[in-house]
């Protein structure tokens, strides 16, 4: 897909988010999640990913039932890994019914990517 068409398609996807995407986006937007900047429906290489934190090279994908057993997802994940991204995939129903578990998994993935100095600073008790 050409760059201009990809941008237009990403805009369309942002306007037509699923309930699960909308629910998770509520927690990730505006640096509200650990101060990390997430983008939604963002072009990464040849793909448009649901959510990405470029700073921490983390992609979060929410999948509906049509993705069950889809080999294209495996190829997509391999390509994203090749670009240096980690990919977390969750089912839409889990994002809605078990939102705290999904957010905890994202938090853990982000926490693993912070430098050691930031981890030490973060865990210090207030003085």
Automatic annotation (TrEMBL):
Residue ranges constituting the DUF559 domain according to the UniProt record: 6-110
Q: Which InterPro entries match?
A: DUF559, Endonuclease_DUF559_bact, Restrct_endonuc-II-like
Query: What Pfam families has UniProt attached to this entry?
Result: DUF559
Q: Which domain of life is it from?
A: Bacteria
Protein name as annotated: DUF559 domain-containing protein
